[in-house]
Amino acid sequence: MLAEADLRIAPDVALLLGGQLAKTATARAFANGGDALAFARRLADGAPLALRYTKQAINAGIKAAALQSFDVSTALEIATLRSDDHREALAAIREKRKPDFKGR
C-alpha cells in the first residue's frame, strides 16, 4: 500500500494541473473542502499500476509546464536586465534615491 502522504493533492495544485482536471468532480470536491484523505485511501486500495502510471503522467505534465515557465521567465528576465527601468533602478540604488520608472 502506498503512503497516504504520496497521494494528497492540495486544491491549488489540483487546479493547476489544467482545465480538464479542474472540471472533474474530484477537483471540484477538493476545491470545496472535500475529503482528500478519503479519496487518497480509495486510490491506495485500487490498482497500483494504474495509480503509479497516472501519477507519472501528472508529474510529467507538471515538469513540462515548469520547464516551459522557466524558459519564458529566463527570456523575460534578460529583457528586464536590458531595460531603461533596470538602469534606472541601479542608478537610484547608487544615488540612494527613489527610482523613477517609465515602463521601458
Based on the model shown, name its key terms.
104 residues, mainly alpha, disordered N terminus, 2 domains, elongated
Briefly, what is this?
With 104 residues, this protein is an all-alpha fold.
Description of the structure:
By secondary structure, the protein is an all-alpha fold. It folds into two domains: 1-46, no CATH class; 47-97. The protein has six helices and no strands. The longest helix has 34 residues, at 48-81. It is elongated. Mean pLDDT is 77; it is low at 1-7.
Provide the fold topology.
Layout: H1 11-16, H2 19-22, H3 25-31, H4 36-44, H5 48-81, H6 84-95
Number of domains: 2
H/E element order? HHHHHH
Portion in beta strands: under 5%
- Overall pLDDT level: 77
Query: Which regions contain 5 or more consecutive residues with pLDDT less than 50?
Result: 1-7
The end-to-end span amounts to 56 Å
Fraction of helical residues: 55-70%
Broad structural category: mainly alpha
Shape: elongated
Task: Count up the helices.
Answer: 6
Main pleated sheet? none
Number of strands: 0
Radius of gyration: 22 Å
